[in-house]
Write a sequence for this structure.
């Protein structure tokens, strides 16, 4: 777990060694993938529609037409694989290198590289990446950033807003659960990234619970 203030640079870390260990990015890559897809015009608006082919997936929320916003929120793999085909491996390699995002091993499959272990990053690297996203210092247009900002929003109260993304790397043993994002408060922005071993999928809720508990304990948000 890493929680860091954007302005005061105050930082809290649980398990320093693991905070710098790289793991498969899984669906946390959808943050960068969304920016890339918008910039490359693989999709133009958050409400553009992905047409469901009728194939049945184990996750019920995937079995319908999707927008970019809904696909992001339910982590719809087939939608982002469709975007991956439109973007292409060469573009992905260029963007990942230019944004200094983790480690990408070549050659890689453009439809699975964020799922199969080809692309890995650490909690510390996720925090550094999210700082750039928030500050909009990466090579993306204002419209791409604004659409991403809209679809990342998961909670808004009078005192804080949370924008975040979960992830689950299902192929390693144990599986790796992720939760990354940032909290905007009236006086600061707090970036967070956590990952944990998942031995049983009934424990997936702990990604959010442990992060939220830590944010409350550090008085970033109120309960």
């Amino acid at each position: 777990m890493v929680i860091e203030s954007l302005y005061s640079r105050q930082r809290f870390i649980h398990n320093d060694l693991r905070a710098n260990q790289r793991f498969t990015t899984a669906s946390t890559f959808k943050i960068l993938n969304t920016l890339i897809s918008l910039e490359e015009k693989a999709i133009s608006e958050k409400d553009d529609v992905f047409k469901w082919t009728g194939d049945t997936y184990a996750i019920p929320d995937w079995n319908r037409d999707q927008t970019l916003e809904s696909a992001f929120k339910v982590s719809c793999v087939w939608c982002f694989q469709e975007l991956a085909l439109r973007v292409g491996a060469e573009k992905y390699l260029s963007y990942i290198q230019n944004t200094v995002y983790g480690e990408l091993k070549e050659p890689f499959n453009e439809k699975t590289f964020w799922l199969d272990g080809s692309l890995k990053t650490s909690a510390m690297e996720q925090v550094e990446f999210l700082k750039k996203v928030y500050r909009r210092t990466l090579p993306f247009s204002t419209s791409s950033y604004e659409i991403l900002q809209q679809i990342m929003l998961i909670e808004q109260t009078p005192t804080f807003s949370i924008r975040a993304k979960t992830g689950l790397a299902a192929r390693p043993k144990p599986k790796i659960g992720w939760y990354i994002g940032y909290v905007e408060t009236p006086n600061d922005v707090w970036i967070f990234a956590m990952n944990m071993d998942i031995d049983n999928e009934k424990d997936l809720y702990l990604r959010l619970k442990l992060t939220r508990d830590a944010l409350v304990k550090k008085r970033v948000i109120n309960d």
Summary: Helices lie at 16-19, 30-39, 68-73, 77-87, 89-98, 123-135, 142-152, 206-217. The chain has a mean pLDDT of 96.
